[in-house]
Amino acid sequence: MHKPTNIVSYSIRHYIGIFREETLLERLEALLSSVKTHDFQVLFLEPHAKDGGVFVHFNYNASDPENALVSIENDLKQEALKHGGIPSWTGLGRGNIWLVKGRPWREDMNRYASTVVKLAFEGPDIQEESLYDILRPYGRIQDVSSPVPVPAGTFRSSTVTFQRVRSATIARNVIHGFKFVDSSAPTRLHAIYQPPIQAHAARDWITGHPRIVLPIIVFLLGTLTYTIFDPVRAIMVEGKILNWFNYREFSLYKWMRANTLDRLSFVSTSSSGDMPAEDVWKERKDAQIALRSYLSDLPSTIAFIHGPQGSGKSRMLHGLLRETNRKALVIDCTELNKASSDARLVAGLAQQTGYWPIFTFLNSMNSMIDLASVGIIGQKAGFSSSLNEQLKQILEVVGTALKGVSRSLRTDAQRKVKADQDSEERKAQDISMRERIRNGTWHDGRLDCVAGNGVMCELGVGDELMTGLDSEAGDDIGSMALAKTEKGEEDELARKKRSVEDIQAVTALPIVVIKNYAARGGANREELLSVLAQWAATLAENQIAHVIVMSDNRENSKLLARALPSKPLNSIALYDADASSALSFIRQRLHDAGTNIELTTDQTVCIGKLGGRASDLESLIHKVRSGQAVEEAVEDIIARGVGELRKNAFGEDLEDAKSLPWSREQAWIVLKLLSKQVEIPYYDLLLEFPFKGDELALRRMEHAELISINTRNGRPSTVRPGKPVLKYVFERVVNDSIFGATQDIWANEKVISSAENTVRACEQELLDLKDIAMAERSSLWGGKKASSERESYLFKKMASAETKIQTLEKQNIELKKVLRRGG
């Protein structure tokens, strides 16, 4: 075998053999040509690159060919032994010579050499003993299989397993096409390699044993997730909280910005204008104090900040976070509620928390696998997971990362405290050394090496002066007082150390902020809020992080209260500023912006229309700074509110109105009532037309910031506009004669339709009572008949409904005249 045997498609040994092929063939031809037995003569050499051998074509002259071939083979082997063996690509001379008994089949298919050779019988079967005798000379045989039944027209075969690939290669090339003659008819052998493992054997076994394979795959995937991906995800979340990946927090970036852009900037980068001044926003002081108190202690509950939209919840919290320099993780429910599918919701939560890597596309694939497994094994394989489980998995990893953040921050704080203590100790030692030098009691031990020890050490000091022992000498009373003083100092240091450790334990905790916590978007969003509530309760109870939940509505705290049943929520309310605080705030902000104006009485009245809502006050300040007059700015805010109200409360058209969670009639009645009154009784509004007990519509209006529902003794009490400026917006909308006439006509039509239904129902019941009255008899004492009393009641009800119909019909006639006049 002058070249290596190929057992795979690509092998470096094959190319080494090609490189040495020409030299090896020359040596082989020279070796063979030296044998002259029976006029042996080499005609040509035919390399077989695939199996690594050479077919030698030769001539000879003999009267007994069979014995002559045996003799030639033996002489060639002897000659090869004299020269150290047949030349080989390895240079070790391990090749040998074999007489080909069949017809060699030189092919270049992807059938590579293996230890298994399949022998097909073209003729009668050959017994195992005969096969063994034929093939054993080429190498040790491990097994010979018996022929098995095959389809008609196919040769029966046996499989022979050799111990070595080299033996199988020799047997295959020597025996292929060999005609074996037994007592019966002759049999021609066809030899081919057969892979030790059948094609698709593993696949067939896997598909044939799904009850075993699928649970194993689930286990392996779960193990892979928990051992590899989850730790990576926890590190990524921790990096997001600690700003590892935010280049703006890098020291090099800060230095470059401070020395380049900030020096060239002509605009003040102070953020003092972003926050309302403490002295002009008195309503926010209590909330800030309550929130600061919550953050200064270990958490045991959740802080729930609620207040109307635009009341400054986010601004207050961000200012407090900048002040305390605490690390925070913010989850915005508004962005999550915008997700159009569960996969986008999960991806959005992962993005906000820094959870990476995430494979949302696999969930749909896993669902398909589960459906297929139901048909295969009768039950789900457990690949897919519900939205609830996916959200919990993300938040569980985030909770683990929060623990890591706390440990990291606490370690950094302890390291800083230790460095400060070491610095103080070094300063104290320096002060003590200077004092001893000043008193002449300090001795430099390095001089001992020069001056010697013992008595001669005095030379290191010079003249004998007062020593440290002399300066520390004193009476027993002084020593006792000194000991007491030192003990007191040690106790004080221990107390300070405990206090510092307690402060470190609190300040090292990260803060989790859940913004815009509100039920909007369907059942899946309710599920999101429930999962967030459970997770927030777990963080607070286990003191993993301070949890702050912000919402526009106090009613949204119910889910949090259910998740934390044993402890009350730390509820912090933010309200609109009163008139004096609002004016002070506007003056202060305008003064900070360099706009000093004196507000007149009329301007003060105009500002009063905006109330104390922070968002509206900020809008007013921006418009005034842009050059608008106060009156124009307020009018612009109200006019903009009118357009937004018509779109949000009534829809742009009838199709848009159908998607609103309330009817146009319900919105119109609320606007008309609140345009005339500061507040209206909740249950009086709820029980009358057009609500008729539809409490959900009122709640939806509250969520849309159209109204606010005030409570008393834990129950709804009154209904007010969603923010102060809406009172004047409502008036502007109601005073629009065309719009008002249109809405009144539609509302009246609904009332008329309801009244007509009442009349028809009464008429039908009166017809039924006529038959009943004929069979009814008067009581013995002359009492009224029940049917007569019912008739009287129905007539009164019909009259009332008919009067209402006529009145509203007349109103509609007048309203239509308004529409014809155009206002």
From TrEMBL:
Coiled coil: none annotated. InterPro entries: Mt_escape_2_C (IPR018850), P-loop_NTPase (IPR027417), RBD_domain_sf (IPR035979), Yme2_C (IPR039627). It comes from the Eukaryota. It is found in: Mitochondrion inner membrane. Residues 284-772 form the Mitochondrial escape protein 2 C-terminal domain. Belongs to the YME2 family. One of its GO terms (biological process) is mRNA processing. It comes from Serpula lacrymans var. lacrymans (strain S7.9). Keywords: Membrane, Mitochondrion, Mitochondrion inner membrane, mRNA processing, RNA-binding, Transmembrane, Transmembrane helix. Its main location: mitochondrion. This is Mitochondrial escape protein 2. GO terms for cellular component: mitochondrial inner membrane. It is a single-pass membrane protein. The keyword Chloroplast does not apply. Plays a role in maintaining the mitochondrial genome and in controlling the mtDNA escape. Involved in the regulation of mtDNA nucleotide structure and number. May have a dispensable role in early maturation of pre-rRNA.
